[in-house]
Amino acid sequence: MPIRPENAARYPADWPEVSLTIRERAGWRCEGSPAHPECRAENGKPHPDTGSIVVLTVAHLDHTPENCLPENLRAWCQRCHLNYDRAIHLRNAYENRRQGKAIGDLFQEPE
What we know:
Blueprint: H1 15-25, E1 57-60, E2 73-76, H2 78-84, H3 86-106
Antiparallel strand pairs: 1-2
């Protein structure tokens, strides 16, 4: 069963087929990211550096789920994909914490 992407509603209806095409294009191996250009970790096998079982994912280079042109997509292992998206994940976590704190302040008893 395919893993559902984050923000699934933003992906095209044929995302499972698009994703499969990209992973097949890569021969079911990581295509290497800017941080780890030589990575060729193989799907379903232990990662040569981390030891975790590789789940090959498909990354959007421009971080836009609607842009599914093949040149914008890369098959990456978890390490490469998470590292590439790190800044976005950090920003989103900051915004979520900030919004939660702001809402909490509205209902806080005055001191």
